[in-house]
Amino acid sequence: MTNKHGRYWALAAASVAVVVFGSAQSTGALWRDDEVVGGGTINSGTLDIKVGPNGAEVNDYVLAALGSANLGPNGFSQAPLSIRNSGNVPFNFRLQGTTSTGTVPLVLTATTVAAETNCPVTGTPTGPTTLLYSGSAAGAQAPTAPAARLLAAGAREVWCFRLAVDGNPPQSASSTVTFSFRADQT
Length: 186
Hints:
With 186 residues, this protein is mostly beta strands. The chain is 12% helix and 34% strand. It has one helix and eight strands; from the N terminus they run H-E-E-E-E-E-E-E-E. The chain has one helix at 2-24; strands spanning 49-52, 76-85, 91-102, 107-113, 130-136, 149-151, 156-164, 175-185. A five-stranded antiparallel beta sheet has the order 1-2-7-4-5, with no helix packed on it. Strands 6-3-8 form a three-stranded antiparallel beta sheet, with no helix packed on it. It starts with a helix and ends with a strand. 18% of the residues are buried. The model is unreliable at 16-27 (pLDDT under 50).
């Protein structure tokens, strides 16, 4: 009887060894791919988008003029923002998105204008304008992806932002809107 149990243990140990070695060998994979590419030109440059007042654009800018401590029903706040390509290669750019925090529902209107003076604090934008966006301030994109606006190296464009509230905004409430831009080399 001892001999019989010894064979069972030997068979069980051999089965476990086969399972362990068999599973360890099935995890490897090799990948290889070759492709011939024809000659071409590789250009490099500096891609740099800046925002802020004309001549003083920076990477991060607080648009303090776009706000009001006492915005009443059907009120709005409006301010210009200069967007400049301070790099040496042209790029496509857009308002990638906005985040809105707080309890005041805001409507955003974004329009291009010829200069900061064409985006008055009160009234509508003046001179030649192009409407880029009108809708909820939360999640805005202008133009809508994948579309973009071309900006040559050293050039700038002025956007007029307007944030408006409806006829019945919540009292003693506030909201903050953050604008994020994206630039891609052309």
